Amino acid sequence: MYLGIDIGGTTTKMGLADSSGTFHSENSFNTTSYSSSDQFLSALEGEIIRMVSLSGVQLQGIGVGAPSVNFHTGIIENAANLGWSGQLNIKSHLEDFMSCPVLVTNDANLPAIGEMIYGAAQTMQDFITVSMGTGLGCGIVSNGNLVGGHHGMAGELGHINVKPNGRKCGCGRRGCLETYVSATGLKRTLFKLLADYNGGYSELEEFAFDEISAEKITEAALRGDNIAIKAFNYTGRILGMKLADLLLITDPEAIFLVGGLARAGKLLFKPTTETLMDAKLDTYENTVEVLPSKLPPEKVSLMGACGLIAHGDLFGKTARDKTILERKSL
User: Fold this and answer.
1) Burial grade of 91 (CB within 10 A; 0-12, 13-18, 19 or more)
2) pTM of the predicted protein model
3) For helices 266-279 and 214-222, what crossing angle results, to 10°?
């Protein structure tokens, strides 16, 4: 068995799976309950011991996705979406603790790994995944290989600037994409629209900010709430514009939208795709699709974490190309 760990800004998810991506045990706990890295690490170690002991399995390795992690060193470095600052060498801690191999990558890469090994991108050489949860992350696969960069920080799409002096971001800057395109960004947009419309009717206008979730906004939009629909249209337009820019850099075959916000379906996909098609160069006409993941939405990142450690050999170019050719011949 392989243990996958997805450390998110709100929730840390864990799962024991075999090499085929089939889960035999899963668990989660609240990341925000811990105000220091030491407290979080202690809780994580306790959950690992409990899960492995109850399952009675022989652990072959651990795959970890975490925000702002350098996969070369295994160190989480001042993550904007976690409740503590400083550095945490999650790789060395877990290797010493469990005496097994540990591979670490940015949490935004997990959906890309999951799609590449188990999902709709198994025969693709070039694609992008955009993950929208508490923040916004991006995984880039180019020529069959996950793009990491010199510091292991490539693909930080959530922190490109979309509006100078715009919304304050957890990273300390203003105007980052994830302050507009994420579950949190959608909430901020909704409340801005409620203020702009000066109490114009919306079923959500009686709620405080902390009482609203992206799921509630989605449900309201599906019931025809005009302000909620406008919030999604605004979010999709900004995302579509930035994806049009990304096409010029990576030239992907497909872009997968994943994460909690992507569950809104056409509410997000329609304005995103329409804006992307209007904003892109004519060169890219009919060359890229914006797609949902074919993997279970609640498991796509965990599958990526398990795939990271169970199929690490796939990330070498020769092995990856060979695998793609084999799958295309089936």
Assistant:
1) buried
2) 0.85
3) 90
